[in-house]
Write a structure and sequence with these properties.
The complex is a heterodimer of chains A (about 260) and B (about 230). By secondary structure, chain A is an all-alpha fold. Chain A has one domain (about 5-250). Chain A contains ten helices and no strands. In chain A, α2 (about 30-50) crosses α3, α6 packs antiparallel against α9 and α9 crosses α10 (about 220-250). In chain B, about 40% of the residues lie in helices and about 30% in strands. Chain B folds into two domains: about 1-75 and about 180-225, Rossmann fold, CATH 3.40.50.300; about 80-145 and about 155-175, no CATH class. Chain B is an alpha/beta fold and about 230 residues long. In chain B, α2 crosses α4 (about 130-140). Chain B has helices spanning about 45-55, 85-95, 100-115, 130-140, 160-175, 190-195, 210-230, and strands spanning about 1-15, 20-30, 35-40, 60-65, 70-75, 150-155, 180-185, 195-200, 205-210. The N and C termini of chain B lie far apart (about 45 Å). In chain B, the strands form two sheets. A six-stranded mixed β-sheet of chain B has the order 5-6-7-3-8-9, sandwiched between helices. In chain B, strands 2-1-4 form a three-stranded antiparallel β-sheet, covered by helices on one side. Classes of the chains: A mainly alpha (about 260), B alpha/beta (about 230). The interface of A and B includes residues 5, 9, 23 and 250 of A.
């Protein structure tokens, strides 16, 4: 199959996946918005009222972090174990296995974009008027998209052989959630811990997204280059792993 | 012309904590252009595994395979079907996964609707269809896949009684045409009717290859012998 054919499959299957998801529940695509809102409410109550973390515009601050995180987390969690469900298919047709995790990521990205648009509207209503610096969001979103794909490719290529990894990923994501600076500003953290925490590319992404959306500042291009480099490295490693293991997935026993 | 040649091909599966299972130990045979080659053998002999090596979805780990064409595909039914999608979306998706162009499948939709007699149901999610209806769509789509070498595993017919006849006839017509086919079956009568040559496989080893009647006789004798051995043991 050619790259064009793979691209067509990714696009069509993404559409199909979203359609199927919409039809599976009563509320359909309203869930895509309701879910982060429920999330937000819980964290608002816990961190603003119970933990008393006081930051200016805490709701907006939290919302930006949560929405970016949600995109990252649900993509990684849903995509990394996706190959196991395609083993029967891989036995019947010659198709590169990497398309399946990518499809999950693109489906999650579409959902993210809808929620993100609503976020922009919400910010506007609450006094953060969109300005030219908002265009930097295109850069940030593109880089995060690459980062997610890279991480997902690396994980999805090895999870079929060692399913236990998906348990580790789940717990790792939970841990990562607490150190990514979603509900606290990074400058609250003392050095040297702060430097360690900013190794995490998602931490830098969220910081910079806030700079753009809440402070009308361009993102730090050093940070952007850092995240982009990590993304490309992961994509390269992930695709190499898929190339290496392509012929072995079909031979695995089905789940 | 020789399209594919297997020489001493072997394949084994790794199983968690159980070491290796050797499914194919030593398979040697060739496939000629335009012929229908039958693969016969008992359950667990390695017929389906052999077919998947031919399809290229299993990579052999022993021996050599010479291919004069890569255009070789399994006849698959309902590949990649998603329950919540309607018939058209499923047809497009399944076709694309099998290497067809999206536009091509779209152009074939009216034909498929007519052939399957699905009518307006095609716009409903296939989870609301009967098993027979899904089978019909799967079959109609399979007929659209036209590889140089068609690999068929067992089932020649699908759906309810009326459609069974129709589907069986369509496949048989396809097999009897100039199409190169590899047909796996444990039904001797099917092999006898459709195949020019037969490969007999037993516990992962190809025992014989040749004209249908010759190999079938050997196979029949072997089955009879081993059955009487079992009876007297």
């Amino acid at each position: 199959m050619t790259f064009k054919q793979y691209l067509a499959i990714i696009l069509f299957k993404t559409k199909a996946e979203l359609k199927a998801e919409r039809q599976r529940t009563y509320l359909g695509f309203i869930w895509w918005i309701l879910e982060p809102l429920m999330f937000l409410t819980i964290f608002y109550v816990v961190f603003f009222h119970i933990r008393q973390i006081k930051t200016e515009n805490f709701v907006q601050f939290l919302l930006v972090g949560l929405i970016m995180w949600q995109w990252f987390q649900s993509s990684v969690l849903q995509s990394s174990s996706v190959i196991i469900y395609q083993i029967n298919l891989l036995r019947q047709v010659k198709i590169s296995a990497w398309v399946f995790p990518i499809i999950k990521v693109t489906a999650n990205t579409v959902k993210f974009l809808i929620v993100f648009t609503l976020l922009i509207i919400f910010l506007w209503v609450t006094g953060f008027t969109p300005n030219l610096n908002y265009l930097y969001m295109l850069e940030i979103i593109l880089i995060v998209f690459l980062l997610i794909n890279g991480i997902v490719l690396c994980l999805a290529s090895i999870v079929p052989f060692v399913p236990d990894i998906s348990v580790i990923i789940q717990n790792l994501m939970l841990g990562l959630f607490f150190v990514t600076g979603i509900f606290f500003p990074i400058d609250m953290v003392p050095e040297p811990i702060r430097s360690y925490l900013s190794i995490n590319p998602m931490m830098r992404v969220i910081e910079n997204t806030r700079e753009v959306l809440l402070h009308s500042q361009p993102p730090d291009q050093g940070d952007m280059l850092y995240v982009f480099s990590i993304a490309m490295l992961f994509i390269f490693v992930g695709l190499s792993l898929f190339k290496k293991f392509q012929n072995q997935y079909a031979k695995l026993s089905e789940s | 012309m020789e399209l594919i040649k297997f020489e001493n091909v072997g394949l084994s599966f790794k199983r968690k904590g159980k070491g290796q299972i050797t499914a194919i130990k030593d398979a040697s045979f060739n496939l000629l252009e335009g012929e229908t080659l039958g693969i016969i053998g008992r359950n667990g002999a390695g017929k389906s595994t052999l077919l998947r090596i031919l399809a290229g979805t299993y990579l052999a780990d022993k021996g050599s395979i010479v291919r004069n064409t890569e255009n070789c595909a399994l006849l698959t039914l309902q590949l990649g079907f998603v329950p919540y999608l309607n018939g058209i979306d499923n047809a497009i998706l399944s076709g694309m996964l099998q290497g067809l162009d999206k536009k091509y499948i779209e152009s074939k939709i009216p034909e498929i609707i007519e052939y399957t007699e699905l009518g307006k149901m095609i716009h409903e999610p296939i989870s609301t269809w009967s098993t027979g209806m899904v089978a019909r769509l799967g079959f109609a789509l399979a007929l659209e896949i036209k590889p140089k070498i068609l690999l068929i595993d067992e089932s020649l017919s699908v759906g309810d009684m009326a459609f069974k006849k129709k589907s069986e006839a369509a496949i048989k017509q396809r097999i009897k045409s100039n199409q190169t086919v590899v047909l796996v079956s444990h039904s001797i009568s099917t092999i006898e009717e459709l195949c020019d040559r037969v490969v007999w496989i037993e516990q992962g080893v190809t025992k014989a290859q040749g004209k249908t009647d010759v190999v079938l006789e050997m196979y029949n004798n072997h089955v009879k012998n081993s059955m009487s051995k079992k009876l007297w043991a």
